[in-house]
Amino acid sequence: MKYCALSEKGKRQHNEDAVFVPKHSEAALAVVADGMGGHKAGDTASAMALDVIVSEIKRGGASPEQLIERAVDAANAAVYAASKSSSECQGMGTTAVIAMPFISYYVAANIGDSRVYHYHNGTIQQVSRDHSYVQELVDAGYITKAQAAVHPRRNIITRAIGTSKKETADIFRREWQPGDMLLLCTDGLHSALEDMDIARILSEESDLEESCRRLISEALYGGSTDNISVALILNEV
To answer: What does DSSP assign to residue 184?
Structure first.
């Protein structure tokens, strides 16, 4: 596997995102988190959740799905406890997307509106499903996906790590092939780029680092006003 990650504060004063990809022989894992909360609470929530998730998954000893469930439970408990112990951290929380790649399949999970995409032969498919107010409206047939992209309440999420005593992630197991890629990203990216634009960038670039840079630069050009974080995993041939 080959990994790359990049995070940019964009037009915000602080970067409240956190990203992890492995170095050398660390666990096959990528995590992207998008924190929220007053002052620097968002930074705290995303960093704390990411650290707990990574350390729990590195412990091993269970199936990928069980490891993710355990990691999300531990991260949620840690962030929730921290939010109750300090007035500065009150109400903080974070989204998270997780991917564990293997040779013929991967296991991915999300909580919140950060996303996992699967790139294959020039096309991408959104694997995760947003936990958001507008996604619920789309699912109920009240608005279209295009309307959701510009809805005034599109930033309201319905699940996040640390905002309640118990939260669960949606977990997906999918097959993939050599040459396929997984993209993990915060809403700073997908709110500014259409799926076809993301697929175009990934198909035009052969270098993962350049792909990350182009995704972020085109999201900024496309009007993103949020922090932007991306992680790419290539199933190397």
So the answer is: E
User: What is the pLDDT at residue 112?
Assistant: 95
Residue 151: pLDDT band with limits 50, 70, 90: confident
The encoded tokens of residue 19 equal: 């990203």
Helix (H) or strand (E) holding 78: helix 64-85
Best CATH choice for the domain 2-224 from the list 3.40.640.10, 3.40.430.10, 3.60.40.10, 3.30.420.40: 3.60.40.10
Alpha carbon 2 to its chain's center: 18
Structure tokens at 231: 């992680």
Task: Give the confidence band of 136 by pLDDT, cuts at 50, 70, 90.
Answer: confident
> Which tokens sit at 139?
């699912």
Q: Which helix H or strand E contains 48, and what residues bound it?
A: helix 41-59
Measured distance CA(145)–CA(209) in Å, rounded: 30
Task: Mention every residue, 6+ apart, whose C-beta is less than 8 A from residue 156.
Answer: 132, 133, 134
Measured CA distances, 9 to 12, 13, 95, 197, 228 (Å)? 6, 7, 16, 21, 6
Q: Find out whether 46 and 89 touch, Cβ atoms under 8 Å.
A: no
* Alpha-carbon distances of 209 from 2, 148, 172, 196, rounded to whole Å: 11, 31, 26, 20
Domain boundaries defined on the chain: 2-224
